[in-house]
Amino acid sequence: MNTESQNIEFKESWRDEYQKWICGFANAQGGILYVGVKDNGEVCGVPDAKKLMEDIPNKVRDMMGILVEVNLKEKDGKQCLEIVTEAYPYPVSFRGKYYQRSGATNQELKGAALDRFMLRKQGKTWDGVPVPYLKAEDLDNATFDLFRKYAKRSGRMEEADLMDDNHGLLEKLRLYEGSYLKRAAALLFHPDPEKYVTGAFVKVGFFREGMDLVYQDEVHGNLFQQIMKLMDLLCTKYMKAIITYEGIQRIETLPMPHEALREALLNACINKDYAEPSPIQIRVYENKLEIINGGVLPEGWTVETLLSSHRSMPYNPDIANTFFRAGEIEAWGRSIERIITACKKDGFSTPEFRYDASGIWTTFKFEYPERATIQSDQKTTQKTIQKTIQKLTEQQQAILVYLNEHPNATRKELCEKIPGVTMGGVIHNLSRLQELGLLKRIGGRKQGYWQIIE
User: Residue 137: is it exposed, middle or buried by C-beta count within 10 angstroms (0-12/13-18/19+)?
Assistant: First the structure.
């Protein structure tokens, strides 16, 4: 006989409490409960098999209101019962409690897990649940204006719809359930969505090796505001950019692609299970960035499903639809693909994805592509140039900036374009910049030009 699995359970004898397992099968994909079989699959036999064949279906029907098929099996002269339970499209309870088969275990559903189960059985989603007392006038006008700007740019909404008032726009985005606004509306447009949804914020922390927290921040506000704040916070405070120069132009290169980071943040906010009170966490280390999103994959999905071609099944479809209309995401389940593509395009390695009881983990390793790497001799040169530039006067810096864009400029032109400088000042500053090795004259006064020295 087969071993225990997602759809098979063994019991040596019958007890009425084993209806919990039948309930668990009914609330999952169905399954078979064998009575008179040891855990190792060996048939040990069950007494009164024929009587149980009559009693069990009646007890299950009376206690749970469902039907099961009970078959008599025999092996090596010993009888056992095969109780076949089909998957039911509606929630099934046993003595007021709900159970569900998960792997080879039977789990009682409580709290957020029970909420998810009940909504799924009713064909609803968490973000589609109506919220009493929430009105369109409670929402943030500035965020509506931002959305209209994004949506007009994306071309994914009719311009006439964008000119409608906030109430009309919410209706076009299908954020009403009857006369009530949905939870998605609170998360997307309310200035303080935590008033309605606990944990609707993001925690960011910088850690040393050994999990020592050095400093941290919390990002609050609606989801549009959170994305903007997070991008600014992570790029300016938590990640160290490498500095290079092209001439006198300063170039900052982050240790991961800007586009991939934004896509990963959107993916986390859209697919978080907001029934869980814990916020999204972002942990930044010297060599990596981790996004931990307490999300739940669709039933039967794994990380391999995410990494392969798959249909779009956002956990919060109303939130996803609004971000799609704003042009912030694609609608066809390509978020992970876009993150990977952005990394490869900019010469970075692809991030790691993991799914466990704590949620979905996305880990970016910090690295600098070859095009942004500074060799030791280049470092010395660039540092010297940088220090030299910092010592220049404002007029000298202004002359370099102007000549970088207008290498054929004459002394008279510089005198006219640079505020507050005389012809004598122009001559002095040009001479000084050449002495410092930052400027070189190529050719004569009439046919020549100025060259910025890198």
Answer: exposed
